[in-house]
Amino acid sequence: MSGRGTRVGLAVWSVLVIAFLWLPILIILAYAFNGSVLQTWPIQNLTFHWFHQAWHDPDVRSSLWLSVKVGLLATAVALVLGTAASFAIARFSFFGREAVSFLLLLPIALPGIITGMALNSFFYFAGISFSIWTIVIGHATFCVVLVYNNVLARLRRTSPSLIEASQDLGADGWQTFRFVTWPVLSTALVAGGLLAFALSFDEVIVTTFTSGAQETLPILILDHIERGQDLPVINAVVFVVIVLTVIPVVISQRLTHESGLVGTR
Amino acid sequence: MIEAAEAGPPLRRARLRLSAAFWRRPWLKLTLLLALPAVAFLLVYLGSLVALFVSAFWHVDSFTGKVVHAWSWTNFSTLWHDHTYWRIAFRTLWMAAAVTLTDAVLAFPLAFFMARVAPRRMRALLFVLVLLPLWSSYLVRIYSWRLILAKDGALNWALNGLGLPDAGLAYTNTAMWIVFSYVWLPFMVLPVYAALERIPESYLEASQDLGARAWRTLRTVILPLALPGLVAGSIFTFSLTLGDFITPALVGGAGSSFIGNIVETKIGQPDIPFAAAFATVPVLVMAAYLVIAKRLGAFEAL
C-alpha cells in the first residue's frame, strides 16, 4: 500500500529504534572487559580479570546459588499451578471463569510494587519470617501467568476432539495423556517454564519486599550499584546475567514462535 | 518397573474405570484442576491484597511503633494535607503518561514495518531483536543508562567527539523519562505488532480501491484496528512506570522521588499502614485504566 519513500522512511526509523534498544546493552556488555576501575567511556585495556574475581567472590557465589534455587522452585510451582489453571479455563466453562482468569493476570497488570507490598505485609502480620520460601512465593505469583498464557494458547489451538478420539479408540487416561496431551503440550510447557525462570532470575521489585536480608543476584547487583562498590566485579556479573537470561528466551521463542507476552498469531 | 509386573488386564481395567469415572464427572476433574491454583491465588495473593488495603486504615502508634488496629482515616488525611505527597503523585502519573506516549510514537512505525513491510526472514529477526531486550534484566539496562549518562559516560563522549558540549542529563527527570521510555519500549512494540499483523491485506486494498491516499488509510483503517494493541501496550508502560522505584533511585536526581520510593521507605521503617494508604493511588488509577482498556478491546489484543 505504501510508496517507496514511506517504506524507506519506515526502515530507517526501525533501524534507529532497534539501535536505541541495543546500544545500551552492548555498552554494558563491553564494560565487563574494562581494564580500568573507573566507569568511564571509552573503556581501556581489555581484561578478563573481573570474571575471575567475580567467580571467586563468596558473596556473588552465594547470591547466584540462591537465585538459581529460587528460579527453579518458582518455575516448578508455576508449571504445576499454571498448567492446572489453563486446563480448567480452556476445557471447562463454569461460574467465575472470567474472574479466575482475571485474577491470574492481576500480578502482571498491577505494578510489581503492589504485589511485593501485599506479600510483605501478609508475612509481617502473619508473623512469617523471611526465608527462601517467601521469595519463591513472591516469584511464583507472577511466574504462573507465563506458563498459563503459553499453555492456554496451545490448548486453544488444539481441538479437544483429539482427546475424545483417543478415548473412543480405547485409551485410558494415562495413555491419552502420554500419547496425545503430552506431545501437544510439551514445547509450550518448556517455553513457559524457561520464561518463568528468566523472569524470576532477574526480578528485583517483588524480591525487595520478600527477601529480608537474603541477597538474590539482582539484589546484590542493585546494592553494589547504589553504594558504588566493587563495580568492575559487578560488571562481570551483569555480563553473565544477560547471557543467562538470553539463552532461555531464545530457546523458548524457537519452541513456540511467540513473545510470551501477547498472542501473535 | 511396577508396570511390567502388573501390566495385566486388572491394572488396565482399573485405569479404564478411573478414566471413565472422571469422564462421567467433569466437575470432579474441574475441582481437582482448579483447587490448587484457586486456593493459592485466593488465599495468598488476593488475601494479601485485601489485608494490605485493610491495613491502610490502621496506623502506627508514634510512641510504641506498633500497629494500632483501629479504623481511622489518619494516613489518608496526612497524605491529603501534605503538598509533597501531591507533588510526588503528580510526578509519577505525569511521567507514566509521558513515557506511554513516547513509547507509542517510537513503537508504531517499527511495529508497522515489522508487520507489513519487512520480508519474512527479516521480520523474524526483528521480532527476536525486540523480544530479547524485553526479557533481559531491566535492572541491568537501567544501570547501563546510569553509566551512559554519567559525566564521563558514552553520551558526553559522543557529543564531545562531535564538538558539542556535555548534555548534563545525569540524575535529572529528563534522564528518568529517557530510561523509562527505553526499558518499557518492547512492551509497546509487541502488542502493536500483533494487532497490525492481524489486519487483512484486503482491507488496505479496499481502502486504496475506494480512492483513499496512504494518510487517509492510516487514519481511518489502520489506526482504529491497531488501537486495541496500542491500549494493551499502554497498560504495561503505564503500570510499570507507575509502580517503579528503581529507576528514580538509580538515574533520578534529588527531586525525583516516585510514589514507589516513598512506599519502599515506609515499608522499611516499618510503617506498612502508611505505605498501603499511598499505594492505593496507583491501584485506583490502574483499576480505572483497566476498565477503560477493556471497553477499548485491549484484552482481546493481549
Describe this structure in words.
The complex is a heterodimer of chains A (265) and B (302). With 265 residues, chain A is mainly alpha-helical. Chain A has a single domain (57-256), classed as MetI-like (MetI-like fold), CATH 1.10.3720.10. Chain A has 11 helices and no strands. The longest helix of chain A has 34 residues, at 58-91. Chain A is globular and about 70 Å long. The radius of gyration of chain B is 26 Å and the shape is globular. Chain B has 302 residues and is an all-alpha fold. Helices cover 78% and strands 1% of the residues of chain B. Chain B folds into 2 domains: 2-44, no CATH class; 82-301, MetI-like fold (Orthogonal Bundle), CATH 1.10.3720.10. Classes of the chains: A mainly alpha (265), B mainly alpha (302).
Helix content of chain A: over 70%
How would you state the average pLDDT of chain A, rounded?
Answer: 87
**CATH H-level name of chain A... which superfamily?**
MetI-like
Radius of gyration of chain A: 22 Å
The two chains with the largest interface, and their residue counts, are: A-B, 91 and 106 residues
CATH architecture descriptor text of the largest domain in chain B: Orthogonal Bundle
The CATH fourth-level homologous superfamily of the largest domain in chain B: MetI-like
Q: Output the helix-strand order of chain B.
A: HHHEEHHHHHHHHHHHH
State which percent range the strand residues of chain B make up: under 5%
Strand runs of chain B, count: 2
- Biggest sheet of chain A: strands, sense, closure? none
The multimeric state of the shown protein is: heterodimer
